Amino acid sequence: MPMGGWAGKLLRINLSNGKIVKQDLPADLAKDFLGGRGFGIKILWDELKPGTPPLSPENKLIFAIGPLTGTPTPSSGKLVIAAKSPLTGGYGDGNVGTHASYYLKKAGYDAIIIEGKSEKPVYIHVDNDKVEILDAKDLWGLGTFETIKKLREIYGEKAGYLAIGQGGENLVKFAVVVSELSRSAGRPGMGAVMGSKNVKALVIHGDKEVSLYDPKKVRELGAKAAKDIRNKPGYKAWIDQGTMAAVEWSQENSVLPVHNFSEGIFDEVKKIDGDLMHEKYKYKYAGCPLCVMPCGNPSRAIIGEYKDLEVELDYENVALLGSNLEIAPLDPIIKLNYMLDDYGIDTISMGNTLGYVMELYEKGIINDKITGGIKLEFGNPELAAELIKLTAYRKDFGDLLAEGTKVIGEKIGGDAPKYALQAKGLEVSGYDCHAAPGMALAYATSPIGAHHKDAWYIAQEVKHGRLEYEKWKAQGVIDLQRIRGGIFESIVACRLPWVELGLDLEYYPKFFNAVTGLNYTLNDLYIVADRIYTLIRAFWIREFGHWKREYDRAPTKWFITKLTKGPLAGTSLDPDKYEQLLSYYYEIRGWDERGIPRKSTLKRLKLSYVIDSLAGIGLQLNE
Ligand code: PTT
Ligand code: SF4
Question: Are 80 and 95 in contact (CB under 8 A)?
């Protein structure tokens, strides 16, 4: 390929027959889908038979970087992990900051596609052109910390490591893949897919040159962007607290989840906020590789039985394991976060699932017969730790917890599903939406299920017309989805320089063109983003064989209960107005009233092949 940026090869590893194949990266795949999430969805669309069970050997697990990964683009040490999700049954992915990202590029690959299933536990070692499938019997059963430590003893500092813990091994539906001792990715169960293939870890090293179309220009742009970032007024506050600053902000705006998203205000917020973390718990600055604004918060517990336990704290982890379960101060939260990183289980879905069953128990919807005699209550860190352990090993009541809130609700029946905070089967992240219809829409239309990563619309919503359901809100959600979920997930770089410090978005097409030699405008990147979004929607439709508007509805609880505390007490979502907002969303996206892409949209986005495919499952598409 004449362009720079891409390494030019896909590495395909079939674990059922041991075949390892290196393929040329198709130029059209690179130009139309860029990388990361774009590669994830296009490969799954082309290669996965509809209806493939997510935990079967036929599912494919894809590790993909993008053209900007590992270049002087700020914060470009990121990697996307994608597969059909065992939690949702649709498209799933996650994004992790890891040395494995740029070592993958330096090894000469844009993506690794893992197929089939190994008979026994293995790990995969990639060292430039050498690719090995190695015995992992001594690693199976270990947590991610110990696994990575043992592999590091063999392969040293100059490699990237990705591992699953007991959560992935035991097929917990929201198991993640962990790297760098406290970075994780793949909320919709990417760790379970890895476990289903008997893959414990990947070790990646490479030392080839990264090809850049115009190296001088890329370096100049990189130096200028880094200087801009360091000069931003919010820089110091950002590296001091990172995402933890959102604890106080969420409280001020009544969106901090409390008591399974019953309220947006936590009485003990001062015991878990970013100021306190920075002052008493954080002991050093850290971040993802290639980052000029490191936001990691390595923190050490200071009291009693938790003393000296260490973990990196982020807003989501503290909101879901702390305020949502009414647990404070930070010390027990550090312990729960540590356990989940070690087991390789998503903190958001776990915190959400625990809050859910606690509320069901409190309401008498579930009882001791279902919990195996365990008395559930909020505000009890020992209980939360016990439930996390049961989940990781799928033991007793933990076997049900490991399925996530949607399946739990369906199994219990009656009123239970009404209190599950999920969309499309993925649990919502840490922003209460009783009084935030735009953010509710963002969760409900996120392409992997309820995640804030695609559109953190709440930050804009609190500034303008908070309780409105007007068309500009649907437009605002789509604008963010295009940039965050489309551009950043496919060029593959961290979005936070733009989100948090306001780095000019125009930098990115400039980086893209100088790296690749192509000539894309920001608008061209938006078109790629729309293509990726629409293909992901088509994938879900093909999997389900149909589509219903209710799949794009926000969690029921926000419609049927009201906030009782703070200035927004008495507020809940309005179901009719929400439907109108969803219709605006479909209209702007070029999807019909059912949420199915129109033929004209598919043609415009160079996705005409989807038309025949959906017609093949009996769907009539509108013009
Ligand atoms: C991400 C989700 C998040 S989003 C957080 S905290 W966040 C939680 N982190 C977990 C964790 O830690 N351990 C664990 N066992 N489970 C966890 N679940 C939760 O997972 C992450 C940062 C953060 S911190 C955010 S917002 C940004 N996310 C980005 C993104 O998605 N794309 C992108 N291009 N850039 C991003 N930059 C920021 O990266 P998922 P990380 Mg993560 C320990 O993976 O599945 O997307 O879910 O990647 O390296 O940890 O950095 O307030
Ligand atoms: Fe990683 Fe934070 Fe830097 Fe983004 S800003 S690359 S999440 S350390």
Answer: yes
Q: Is the CB of 97 under 6 A from ligand 2?
A: yes
pLDDT value of position 182: 79
Separation of alpha carbons 206 and 365, rounded Å: 54
Does 346 contact ligand 1 (Cβ within 6 A)? yes
Q: What is the pLDDT of residue 1?
A: 53
- Atom 4 of ligand 2: nearest residue by CA position: 494
CATH number where 563 lies: 1.10.599.10
pLDDT value at residue 18: 97
141 domain-assigned:
yes
Within a domain: residue 479?
yes
Check pocket membership of 494 for ligand 1, CB cut-off 6 A.
yes
Q: From the CA of 206, how far away is ligand 2's center (Å)?
A: 22
Best CA proximity match to 7, nearest among 435, 492, 549: 492
Number of domains into which the chain is organized:
2
- CA of 538 from ligand 2 middle (Å) equals 31
133, β-bridge pairs: 124
**Cα(531)–Cα(74) distance, integer angstroms:** 25
pLDDT at 180: 81
In a domain, 332, yes or no: no
| Residue 82 near residue 190 (C-beta atoms within 8 A) | yes
Residues of the chain with pLDDT under 50: none
